[in-house]
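Q: Predict the bound structure with fe (ii) ion.
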Amino acid sequence: MIDIHCHLLPSIDDGAKDMAESLALIRLAVDEGISRIVLTPHLHFGRFNNTLPIIKSAFEVLIAEVKSANINVELAYAAEVRLDSEILTLLANKNLPLYGRYDGQHFMLLEFPHSHIPTGSEALVKYLKKQNITPVIAHPERNRDLLSKPHKIKEFVNLGCWFQVTAGSITGNFGDECQTLALQYIEQGLIQVVASDAHNLKRRPPLLNDARNKVVTLFGEDKAQALFHDNPYNITASLFKS
Ligand SMILES: [Fe+2]
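A: Predicted complex:
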């Protein structure tokens, strides 16, 4: 499996608090059967003021530690970018952390606030699409606006967005409502990626197997292969080419 949304870089956001926790989380992911991980720290203006150079240097420190600990895993980095007009400046300055390039498009992990979908989101998505960037919208099943009006996702489907559901939503860790919406969106064929969105060992670990098994049971092996491997692999493969 491949995990393209997690917070395993140490001391950079609300994920792993130090290097020891990062290494423990990566070991757990590997034990889970995850062979490739894209680290996606929050880039959230005013809260986690990460930049591409900060993420890159934290990544280089981690890579050296993973090597010396002999952990067999492939790592790359991007970011979970919070919706904000600052994205336009980052894009213009070539400082916007992106996933890879696939099918003529760049992809990026885009996060809405959990409380709502802000006015102007559609305009920003349209602009990104014009620049050949396809947003992968993080965990739509946990957004309050979408929980009360699930059909509102269609506006972003029609704009060509991709969507990432969190594994814990599928297994019910975020409650019944999120689980129902996650499964409904998967059933409707709206979801392209499942990822762990792991933050820590206890409450939000980097586990995918239980969610994958549930998807196999409900929707079949081909759907699970697409959500847990093929789609996430395709849109991040170019990050792993040196
Ligand atoms: Fe996240």
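A: The longest strand covers residues 105-111.
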